[in-house]
Amino acid sequence: MDGEVVRQDVVDPASGELVESAAEDRVVALLTPVELIEYEPVGPGDLELLIRILADRIERAPSVMVRLYEQKHRAEEAYQKEFSKMVIKSPNQQITMAREYAKFHSIDELTAMNLAKEQLRYAEWLQDALKSKLYGYLNLNKALAASYIAGPIGQR
Predict the structure, then answer these.
(1) CB 25 within 8 Å of CB 121
(2) The organism sits in which domain of life (predicted)?
């Protein structure tokens, strides 16, 4: 738990460039404390602490998820509003050309909507990963407790 965030880098195989994700960066900042990323407990006390931190984080996640859903819905509404406005403002009378005109002039809203969707999807995947990690630590803790209850073998 030295404060350094370690994440898997994604490299584009065609260009060799590092692919970054604004959605991932935002969601990790919202949902994941630094100590949960790539940290492995070294003792029973660390394990208990990590279980509590994970459980607290998962418990607080719904408020973050609601905000991400709201952000997604506002972005969808903004895109639909701008798209409709551009269809009406289009100098073309043919609907196909008017739609293309609207798509071209509402690309910023479409980008914002797609980013909001990506953030929400990543948050859902991250929650699933945190739950899996929590269940793994709970099982490890249960096995550790059972070994303490059994006591040393052959010393009775």
Answers:
(1) no
(2) Bacteria
Q: Say which amino acid occupies 13.
A: P
Helices (H), 90-156: 95-105, 107-150
**How many degrees, rounded to 5, is the angle at CA 121 between CA 118 and CA 123?**
105
Q: Does residue 53 have a pLDDT over 50?
A: yes
- Cα separation of the two ends of the chain: 39
Q: How far is CA 36 from CA 5, 7, 55, in A?
A: 9, 11, 11
Query: Which band of pLDDT confidence, cut at 50, 70 and 90, is reported for residue 107?
Result: very high
Residue type for position 108: D
The letter for the amino acid at 141 is N
pTM metric for this prediction: 0.66
